[in-house]
Design goal:
632 residues; Rossmann fold; 7-stranded parallel β-sheet; 26 helices
Length: 632
């Protein structure tokens, strides 16, 4: 029955006639009730592997996902396909969460996305025991492994679900994983005999190159064309500088980073998604959850700290299967920065504890309070007010998260909003027992006339100024009214948010697992060494280097990366190859690479490949796999 259904559902909901390899095999394994580990590169169609069987099977799929933005993107996409989906995360109001619980209990949701901190919520677990579950989905499964590049300890709570809930099958998915990470994922999830589906990391349509540069702006400009491209930059300022430089040189480019107003980011994303000529200068968060097939180049202004990050970001190029390129630029200072990065990412214990105290004090969280509450710290302001360097503070926040004190998110909602859930006369019940909250509720009604009937945008700073109190106090009053069911409050989450998993502890009881921290520090050093080795190795094909890192040791040279092409093409040879190709163009519209090698035996294959790559960048030919098409 499943076999008959899956093709119909693929067509009905996704509009496709056929599956991509190995989607059908993965889906069959899930439908057969197996434990499945799926490793598909960025753009490889991972989501369909669990979404389609979730539509077929009775019950609700539970999807564990680490990032709010990714969850929201997936839910929006599914709802757009008329598939009932919802997400629960720390950025939601209590009333919104309750609405989803009600829908769950009435069997009205096929896929439920939750952030990992929800797995330790007693309320969630109590509701979950009443639900018929179909598939347990662990997205971004590398987060469960301390050997991975984005270890999130809250993922280690997933196995606790096995004793409480029943699932027809389980599937873990990731874009990349070394052999050690794959083994660790299966061990942490107790996959005894997993079905493992792993697509080769080799991307035949992407040419990788690494270039040393002391003049990055002009060098990057020289390899770009006015087409859909991403330039990954290490800082927000650099994205602005690159975009300005490109526009000065008549190439349309825009900057994208977390510091931009929400409506700007939405407008930029929309413009870039629908354009095939816009160049995006962005920080590394850009691209997650965005499926744009026609990105022709991904350029790195400086190297990321790990090959996992590089491979994922470079893999956003050429998802349409057409020729694409990934260029990485560096200079000696970048390598020095990478090597010293480990010490910055793992600050001393005293600074970590100082950061915890500073964050709590800035938010006015008392000892013994704060649990299951969402806060919106301003790390820049905290660093300035408490004299802590900003970068070590940010890394300390991450380490504190890894030790279970809070969950840190980079959220992106536009504004605070609220709506009253009770009538005006019902507020009188607050007057005697909660006079402060009563006066605050009345003030909201005075300031925002439609708030009794409609979800209304509210401005926290304006309210705080009007009633002569702090921003944080207004947020806490709104949260209190929401918990009591008086209002539905939707907080703004532009920038960072902290969801406290534990009450604040006294400074003397603040504890970090230093042995485990040292372990993570050594793993980070290993990843940096691997990244630097990739950059400096100009003897081995780039695809072969990536394959070996991810445990794929049988790849052949790609014949199109900077190493394969080499630097052996002299000007005379280059001109001669060009002339021969132009003669062929007069007689035929295309030629295979094999035919080309046979007709030009006097030249090495890498000489021909280098000239073809140059002509491709100039728009004289198109390289489609092993076929060369001459421009008309």
């Amino acid at each position: 029955m499943h076999t008959l259904n899956k093709h119909n559902i693929l067509k009905e909901y996704w509009g496709f006639d056929t599956f991509r390899s190995p989607q059908e095999q993965v889906i069959d394994a899930v439908l057969e009730g197996k434990d499945v580990l799926t490793i598909l590169p960025t753009g490889g169609g991972k989501s369909l592997c669990y979404q389609l069987p979730s539509v077929i099977l009775p019950g609700t799929a539970l999807v564990i996902s680490p990032l709010i933005a990714l969850m929201n993107d997936q839910v929006q996409s599914l709802v757009g396909r008329n598939i009932r989906a919802a997400a629960i995360h720390s950025g939601m109001t209590r009333s919104e969460v309750q609405e989803i619980y009600d829908a769950l209990l009435h069997d009205n949701i096929k896929l439920l996305y939750v952030s990992p901190e929800r797995l330790v919520s007693e309320e969630f677990l109590q509701i979950a025991t009443q639900i018929e579950w179909s598939v347990l989905v662990i997205d971004e499964a590398h987060c469960i492994s301390e050997w991975g590049h984005d270890f999130r300890p809250l993922y280690r709570n997933i196995h606790m679900l096995y004793d409480l809930l029943s699932f027809r099958s389980k599937i873990a998915l990731t874009a990349s994983a070394t052999a050690r990470v794959r083994e660790d994922i299966c061990r942490q999830l107790a996959f005894a005999d997993p079905s493992i589906f792993r697509q080769s990391i080799y991307r035949a349509n992407i040419s990788y190159s690494v270039s040393t540069s002391e003049h990055k702006f002009s060098d990057i400009l020289s390899v770009t064309r006015q087409e859909s491209e991403i330039i990954y930059c290490p800082t927000r300022i650099k994205t602005e500088e690159i975009a300005a430089f490109f526009n000065q040189h008549q190439k349309e480019a825009v900057a994208f980073h977390a510091g931009l107003p929400h409506h700007w980011k939405k407008e930029i994303q929309k413009k870039w998604t629908h354009s095939d000529k816009l160049i995006m200068a962005a920080t590394n968060a850009f691209g997650m959850g965005i499926d744009k097939p026609n990105v022709r180049k991904v350029i790195h202004f400086a190297p990321p700290y790990s090959l996992e990050s590089y491979y994922q970001e470079a893999g956003r190029a050429g998802r349409d299967g057409q020729p694409a390129a990934a260029h990485l630029f560096y200079n000696p200072r970048d390598l020095e920065q990478l090597e010293s990065d480990t010490e910055r990412r793992f600050p001393a214990f005293d600074l970590i504890r100082e950061s915890y105290e500073a964050i709590c004090n800035s938010l006015k969280i008392g000892v013994g309070t704060g649990i299951e509450t969402l806060y919106f710290p301003d790390p820049v302001q905290v660093a300035r007010n408490f004299g802590i360097p900003l970068l070590p503070l940010l890394h300390a926040i991450k380490i504190i998260e890894q030790n279970g004190y809070w969950s840190w998110q980079h959220d992106d909602h536009m504004h605070h909003s609220a709506r009253f859930l009770v009538q005006r006369q019902d507020l009188e019940a607050l007057k005697d027992y909660h006079p402060q909250q009563f006066e605050f509720a009345i003030q909201l009604l005075r300031m925002y006339g439609g708030i009794m009937h409609f979800e209304t945008r509210i401005h926290i700073a304006d309210i705080a100024s009007f009633v002569h109190t702090t921003y944080e106090e207004i947020v806490h009053l709104l949260q209190w009214l929401d918990r009591q069911g008086v209002i539905s409050y939707k907080p703004a989450q532009s920038g960072s948010s902290l969801y406290f998993l534990e009450n604040r502890v006294p400074a003397g009881l603040f504890h970090i697992d230093r042995q485990h921290l040292q372990f993570l520090k050594e793993r980070h050093k290993d990843k940096v060494k691997a990244m630097i080795a990739y950059i400096q190795n100009d003897q081995t094909c780039r695809s072969i280097q990536l394959g070996r890192y991810f445990g794929e040791n049988n790849l052949e040279p790609c014949h199109q990366c900077d190493v394969c092409i080499g630097s052996s093409v002299g000007p005379t040879d280059s001109i001669e190859i060009y002339n021969q190709l132009m003669k062929m163009k007069q007689k035929q519209s295309s030629v295979s690479l094999m035919e080309l090698w046979n007709q030009l035996p006097q030249f090495e294959k890498k000489q021909i490949s280098r000239q073809l790559q140059k002509m491709s960048e100039e728009g004289l030919v198109q390289i489609q796999g092993t076929n060369i098409i001459f421009a008309t």
